[in-house]
Structures are given as C-alpha cells and as structure tokens.
Amino acid sequence: MAMKRRYATADVFTDRMFGGNPLAVVLDAAGLSTAQMQAVAMEFNYSETTFVLPPDDSAHTAKVRIFTPRSEVPFAGHPNVGTAFVLARQSQFASAAADGIFLFEEAAGLVPMKLLREHGVTVGAELRAPEGLSRKSIVSREIAAACLSLESADVAMHVHAPQIVSVGLPFLVVELGSREALSRSKPDMARHAELLPLDGADAIFAYFRAREESAADHETVLHARMFAPLDGIAEDPATGSACAATIALLSTLNKDDRAELAWRIHQGVDMGRPSLLLGRTSSRDSTAIGTHIGGRCVPVLEGTLSL
After folding, report:
1. Per DSSP, which regions of 185-259 are E strands?
2. What pLDDT, on a 0 to 100 scale, did the predictor assign at position 79?
3. In the chain, where does DSSP find H-type helix?
4. Average pLDDT, stretch 220-232?
5. Residues spanned by the domain of 161
6. Residues 238, 102: one domain?
7. What amino acid positions are annotated as catalytic residues?
8. 268-to-128, 171, 205, 225 alpha-carbon distances in Å
9. CA of 219: how far to CAs of 97, 142, 196, 224, 288, in Å?
C-alpha cells in the first residue's frame, strides 16, 4: 500500500521566492530504498533533493541523505542550509530549533548547523564544513579554459592554478580574470567528459574576485558560477559546498594576518536566479581550521508523495 510522505521545498540563499537555489526536502523518508530516493530526486529534478531519516545517535537531530538527479552525494551546501530551514518550521523539531543548533549525520561526517533568526523567526541557516581543506590535482590553464568555452588568457593564475579542492565534496575551482569572462562562461560537454571525473570531482566552479571589499565587515566579494553537466546540472544557482572549498583555499593563500575572514559570494546572477552566500573562514599558520557558509531561505511548496 502506498504511504503518503510529506515534502517541502524552499529557495535557498535568497530572500525572495524564485531566486536562489530550489531544494526539495522529503520529511518522512524512513523505509524508502536508495532506488526510491533516487527516483524522487529525478522527479523533482532540482540540483539536489534531501531525505530526512531518524539519526543513528539520538543526540543528533537527523540523518540526511542528499541526491542529485543522477547520484547520491556525501555532502552539499544548499541542501544542508535548506533542510535546516525547513526542519526548523516542523513541530517535531521545535525543541532542537529552540537551541538554535542542528546536527546532521551525513556520509561525509557530522554537519553542525546554526539557525539564523530575526525577531525570533528562523530565516536561514549556516553550516560548518565537515572536513578540513584538501587540495588535489592541478589542471592546466588551457584545459580549464576549454571546459568553460573560454580562452586560456581568461583564466587567472596569480593566486592559484585551477585545482581540485574539497571540504567535503570536491570541485575543480578556477579563478577568472574578469567579470566579463565569467559572464561568457558556458560548459563544453565534450571537454568536461575528457577531464572529469577527476579526484572525485565532476563539476567546475568558476569565480571572479572583485578588487574591492564590501563596505560591511570588510567582506571579500566573489562572483561565481558552477557547471556540472555530467551530473545533469547544466548550471547550479548556488553551490555552498563549492563556495566553502573555494574560500577555504583562498584563506590559506591570504597574505594579510587576519585570522578571521568574511566572504560575500554572488552566484546564479547570469542564469536569472540571483543568490547570495555569506562565508566565514578561520585559519592559523596558513591552514584553514574552520569554514562556514550560510544564507537566507524562503518557503515555497508543501505537499505529499504517495510511495
């Protein structure tokens, strides 16, 4: 017999409906098979769908499994932020929400979530990455540019070469020399397939670092796009895990002596779903020791699935 299972959707890393990155959260996922979860994720066809299960350790809030339309992933940014926001609105999580902290069990490890509140109402969440920074293969300027349908001169090399980096999920991170080059970027499917997957990464995160800081809190401003055509995602509106890996990398390469850095990342603008991700990094002796990404969310849909 089919069982009705509740779901909710939210737009993540935005303060307005139909901006940011949409997420579906299946609230009653206990008993679903992996194949069923994958089918549901494909049906929603968002960049990710999450499934909330009872935790293995009762001291934690929930076990969360994350699926793209094609595969399960061990960790991701906007699914964690959106799931925390959705659960904070559910009565069965009221006591945990009152403490302002959720702990999610995921394949990559335990992910602490801090609820963001205004006037006593949860308006978003912030995650702490489950892993420290790992730096893997370096990719040539020419190959990275070709994957983005750009010329090699469009790729900036003075801070770092294109490289696979991760704080829980790996990405090829490429710095571009201009905002205009970022606007021209588009994935070359054949070149992606030649290069990726590499070190577990099947997506490319391209960014341009603005030369000025924002007026608020000396935040460093990045403009970004993320392409994952091999995973069925032509472009992602907001990618917390890639942003987290990128700011962890940049904080270790930072030349000033500030141990705490703030980041403001604009993504999704070129595809019509503007997103804002706010980051914090802490480092010691050129080693990233804490990476946080957060933002606001907006509720969109509620309903049931018959499975």
Report:
1. 204-213, 220-228, 233-236
2. 97
3. 34-44, 77-88, 94-99, 141-147, 179-184, 189-195, 240-253
4. 94
5. 134-293
6. no
7. 48
8. 22, 17, 12, 6
9. 29, 31, 32, 15, 17
